[in-house]
Amino acid sequence: MDTILVKRIGGQKLKKIIYEILSDPNFNLKISDLLLFPGRQAVNYLISHLYSKEELIKWRAVTAMGEVVSALAGTDLESARIVMRRLIWNLNDESGGIGWGSPEAMGEIIAMHDKLGEEYNRVLISYIDKKGNFLENEVLQQGVLWGIGRIAVTKPQLVRDSFSLLVPYLEHRDSLSRGLAARAMATIDHKKAKPALLFLKNDSSIIKIYENGKFVEFMTSQIVDNIL
Length: 228
What we know:
By secondary structure, the protein is mainly alpha-helical. Helix content is 63%, strand content 5%.
């Protein structure tokens, strides 16, 4: 894509191009094209796709947010902080919205960028802390659990403090919440998690999680099997 042409693209045309990238069968190869656009401009459209009813588009927008905001932070850290504060605002009751996809995007960005990770890891964790900024919405809670698990893949030290907060979710009535919590704990520290996760050794519920750019399905008990 011609760099000069990219600088001239805006408005609805840019929105259309970003959607085409997110829906492309070769998304993993196309995602780098997003870095050709002005970061803050691309972010505006990516955030709108966090609300998409198309599950794959929503999750690819999460992945793209990590790439774009991490790159933005490399050249303009304060602008990247503004994006993080915007995601936080989306989760604030005063925002007037619900903030779908914001916890997942925060988790992806924190996993991708060291400085932003150090600054915002505790904010994300606070959303499952009843003494912190606890989110009552179950779907948003699942987003936080996914985000913590995503961070644990690259920076487990940033989410170690979430360990005790994850334990109650192992008994959650919702199978996805149980599975996400178990996955996060096992990734943070599988030895420490083992005694608690044995509780789920017979949990045959099947859950679907977005991982490494695709959806994977497995039984919750398999998480336990993998650490035994």
